[in-house]
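Pasting two entries for a bug report.
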Amino acid sequence: MQTSPFVEGLLGDLAALASIAPAEEAVNQATRRLSQALAVAVGPRLIEALSDAAVELSARIPSGHIEVRMAGRDPELVYVEDPDVGAAAAGTDSMTARVSLRLSETLKARIERAAESEGVSLNSWIVRALDRSVSTPRQSHGTRLRGYATS
């Protein structure tokens, strides 16, 4: 989905409003400055609105979720079938809790590559990693060693 037509439309609306007082140079200068500031600020706000919409839609989809992915500077809404949802529905946990997670861009890119290599969504990969992390029994690291060794 290209956001530039929406941004250009908004800037056109602003220019049309400014044309009400065409002889006022101060209004024209203010319009140009405001247009430049809006051109930078509106894109991220549109992406934020799409992200909120994706979360709302995902809450209504029983077997997957909607992700906002960036294709260059343009967002894409992508439906992702979530195989873990079916498995979770068979168990006791219904996967309804949501967590907002802040990651560095580097870590996010590494996790995305790992999820892609496993053929699962980013969300599924993170859920599995967290599940493995808390399901693995913790071992005490004392000063004694027990067991047998072979060489």
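Entry 2 (this is the one that rendered wrong in the viewer):
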Amino acid sequence: MARRTKEDADATRSNLLDAAERVFYEKGVARASLNEIAQAAGATRGAIYWHFRSKVDLFNAMMDRVSLPMEEVCVEGEAGCRLAPLTRLFAALERVTGMVTGDERTRRVVEIAFYRIEYVDELMAVRERHLAVQARFHAQVARDLALAADEQGLALPMSVVVAAAGLQALFDGLLHAWILREERFDLQVVARATVMVYLRGLGFRV
């Protein structure tokens, strides 16, 4: 009986997350109400509060279910320290672009995170999470660029902090452009080629 109860609770939680994803996508995070999410899930508002403390908690749980690509990059980068730095960078790039282009749920959740959320009121907490992920990603890229420059005996034309910021902006811009366009380009091919040109412009042999 206890197992059945846990299975029911897990199913309710999953349904609520599915409903949150749909409602956040259709209405935007700030405008979506917990009542609307509960109704979309065929549940009660009380069921939401049984599983989640707030809308922010619900939003973060939705994001965690697919893992934001930038967060995946950070984790894989830290775990992949045995790879050569530029090899690790390109592996992370392919991992992210593969996740976004190959899985519809990931693409939809990334679109919510990019374009369907306003950093107001309680959602300011989500902004802090995004800033933390961006900072970790930037630090990882800067570290890999510095290691690669040392390996190749290269004096970069700018600091690794600035070079990493430029690469991060390039990558973010490609993701944003791909999400927005209805006639989508091949993100994996374009991202790899563009990043390679950027690195060569810095003087790297790639």
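Dev reply: Rendering is fixed now. As a check, the viewer should reflect this: The CA atoms of residues 17 and 62 lie 6 Å apart.
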